[in-house]
Amino acid sequence: MRRNPRFSSFILFxxxxxxxxxxxxxxxxxxxxxxxxKDETGAALPGANVTAVSVERGNSRSTATDSTGxxxxxxxxxxxxxxxxxxxxxxxxxxxxNLVENNRKTDLSVTMKLSAQQAEVTVTGEVPIVDKTNAALxxxxxxxxxxxxxxxxxxxxxxxxxxGVNLPPGANPNPNVHGALGGNNLWQYDGVDTTDPTTGTFxxxxxxxxxxxxxxxxxxxxxEYGRFTGxxxxxxxxxxxxxxxxxxxxxxxxDNWNDQNKTVNRLQSAACQPNCSVSLERVKFAHLNRRYAGxxxxxxxxxxxxxxxxxxxxxxxxxxxxxxxxxxxxQQSTKDKFWDGKVTAQxxxxxxxxxxxxxxxxxxxxxxxxxAGANGxxxxxxxxxxxxxxxxxxxxxxGVFGPNLTAEAQYNWNGPSNSASKHFxxxxxxxxxxxxxxxxxxxxxxxxxxxxxVNRPRQGANGAVTYFTELGGNSHSFKAGVDYQHLVxxxxxxxxxNQLFLDNSFDFVTRTFSPSxxxxxxxxxxxxxxxKIIAAYARDKFEFGRxxxxxxxxxxxxxxxxxxxxxxxxxxxxxxxxxxxxxxxxTTGKSLVVGTYGRFYQFVLQTFSDAFGxxxxxxxxxxxxxxxxxxxxxxxxxxxxxxxxxxxxxxxTYTDEGTLGFRQQIGNTIGVxxxxxxxxxxxxxxxxPVLSGAGxxxxxxxxxxxxxxxxxxxxxVFDKRFSEHWNANLSYAWGKTTTNTTSDTATSLGDFxxxxxxxxxxxxxxxxxxxxxxxxxxxxNKTGVPNYNQTSNLKAxxxxxxxxxxxxxxVGLGGQLVTGIHFQxxxxxxxxxxxxxxxxxxxxxxxxxxxxTEVAPTLYQIDGSLEATFTVFRxxxxxxxxxxxxxxxxxxxxxxxxxxxCDDATQAATSSCGxxxxxxxxxxxxxxxxxxxxxxxxxxxxx
Length: 943
What we know:
Blueprint: H1 5-22, E1 31-39, E2 49-54, E3 60-64, E4 70-76, E5 79-86, E6 92-100, E7 105-112, E8 120-124, E9 137-142, H2 143-146, H3 155-159, E10 165-166, E11 176-177, E12 186-189, E13 192-193, E14 211-219, E15 232-237, E16 245-253, E17 264-265, E18 278-279, E19 289-301, E20 305-317, E21 321-322, E22 329-330, E23 333-348, E24 351-359, E25 362-367, E26 376-377, E27 384-388, E28 391-401, E29 405-415, E30 425-429, E31 436-438, E32 443-445, E33 451-455, E34 458-471, E35 474-494, E36 499-507, E37 512-521, E38 527-544, E39 548-562, E40 568-584, E41 591-601, H4 606-610, E42 621-626, E43 631-637, E44 654-666, E45 670-682, E46 685-687, E47 690-691, E48 697-698, E49 701-703, E50 709-723, E51 726-739, E52 756-758, E53 770-772, H5 773-778, E54 792-804, E55 807-818, E56 822-823, E57 826-832, E58 839-847, E59 854-855, E60 859-873, E61 876-885, H6 912-919, E62 934-942
Parallel strand pairs: 1-7, 6-8, 12-15, 26-32, 31-36
Antiparallel strand pairs: 1-4, 2-3, 2-5, 5-6, 9-14, 10-11, 12-13, 14-15, 16-19, 16-62, 17-18, 19-20, 20-23, 21-22, 23-24, 23-25, 24-28, 25-27, 27-30, 28-29, 29-34, 30-33, 31-32, 33-35, 34-35, 35-38, 36-37, 37-42, 38-39, 39-40, 40-41, 41-44, 42-43, 44-45, 45-50, 46-49, 47-48, 50-51, 51-54, 52-53, ...
């Protein structure tokens, strides 16, 4: 039986509408191609036939201009298109090489001439450098450009090239954007939220060869996006085309190629006066680490179905490590097996489907987990192994239902594999045996500190419907959508064999020990918190007259989260208005004055709900004391769950943001923008612990009234797309953050308001070293510039490509000049039990001066690359690429290890106070300085 195509389209629309109703973002990474057709006098030409043909995929779509001569191809797969316009009595116009990009509109202005002979005119197409329909402050890193430049092999490194993005030392590619914290960003693959629901950081790695471009939005973001107050990072992965294409690379590094560390540890001690300098030179490891990466893409059914796949494998052995006490040398060897795959289908000219999947497991990490809260692992057997993995699967469906209506839907699942032995993070003993803790030295021996896993999966479903219409002579694009997110945070940790031995001494050579006691722990029970987010948004993009383009939007979100015994820890609804206006100065779409206002809510991370957990691990045990011959049962210890009080009135943190700027497109490939940004945070969440006279602690989370954070910034950007052999991006960002809180939910603000704090080192603080904790924690010195603020940041990158005989050369440069991190003079103080002089065992930090008064040295780095390829057969290329990072071998101090201070100048230079004054501001670790010049070599094949 033959089906009516209109009936089939209607059924598909109902399916998409249902998905929308039960399913945030731009659901599918697509763009728009539109414009207006006029005659030579400027009069609109209705009824003209317009056809857009994909250069890469061959599929086509057709439409007709409306009564104002306008046409629009919504939901267009990014790529290059040839547009043909025909109308009886006029010469046909073909506009070639029009670039459509994700979340942008490519706007054409087509002029048709009268012609009785139906002659054809061909003109060069458009590239959307400046887009009046997208007011977001946006930066794009495209594979065609960054593959010619010196860059780190990770999408996180491409994020760092955007202006307003700062990465303080030790931030582990989770940067700060316009004053926000490193866990406040939204990370996406092809529009799929992959953010770690527990930490707010990036939720996994991705095969670098699969990246088509990285789109970064830092301000002015539409109501389609939520759950973040920092930056939005959307990694667009590659898709297949009508041409089979692929690549193979071998990427090689060797520490023996790199330069030596020239810096020294200048830490003074009572045993080393008046001048100590310990070289931070490392023992170079002469080992060639290879990474293999291959890609393949092409048609399954030309013009209709295409595929793309990428695989990357590496076995990386690092330099030798030395155990703290035993002096053993050992090495970490990690293994990566990353894959990415995508299928894209143009089912009909109006219906598109795609599905993608990726996996990024890395195994073989060796970690000293005991370094926090203990002196650490004393020998290799006390270190912990770690494997980690992340997987993402998603399906996308879009439909165009006539000239006025479109719909789209997405479903995704992120997390580890379903295998019982594979989790987001697995930790395990490297050597079989229960751990022994040496009470005399504070080091662990014989067994690992951790055995267990962490799981953090998330699921999402999104949908949206867009309606295009004319109202009052102006074009409107109404879009409404919904977004559902299901979040889980699970952890299960114990000691190996569920035992811990406490020894008076432990001899790692003879493997003998002097026993003190033994703890037999209860089998740990997993602690799982769960969260759900339901969001809905509506926005209208519309023209107002000839010069003004507006976007009005409103976003609703409801977040609910439970702890591990299903108690509600957060349950709140929020509304986020978003407004943007673009003023087209000359009505050309190339010179815009742009202003935005928006409110952005940060979702309360699952780690917050984890803090209420009642399934305590490694807390309940039977204690056995050594009686000289054997372990004898002494007592049973039963750990209570968290005593943190649930606050039902807690509200999510938000940011109010305003921007104002000017954007200018020069020619077809150059854009210049200048923008000012202001941000102010509200409803900041903090814990407020209080000690009783008996030393019992009570903690409540509140929206702390005294917490504050503000950001002022200005940015200037020059962006040259690749054309005429070269591309370049140059940006300068100035920004200043002032705050008294540098954590999402728990800082020292409001801590222990009824207690005094005391130091026995510096009697100049308070009265003889005793001062109210309210002054320590809430005093004026706690407000200032945070350590992650890097006030000025100049970034540059680009490449030049030129053929010299049979060889194609590509020279790339990159680098930045950035002010150093901020820090301050400070001292740790003991919190006293109220009404007593007894230490509670809790410490707080006193600031002598305002936060961020001191600044580390300004840093700069220049990187370079040279690629040489030649064609051996048709499109088959062979080549080699060399990269040099930190060409000038700068090794300046980038972090501060010694921030402890003492104001009492009367004490001896060898005293704790005197040493604090001598060592303040110094760096003592190799990682606190810029890494020396290093090299990378790539052999490549492309076709």
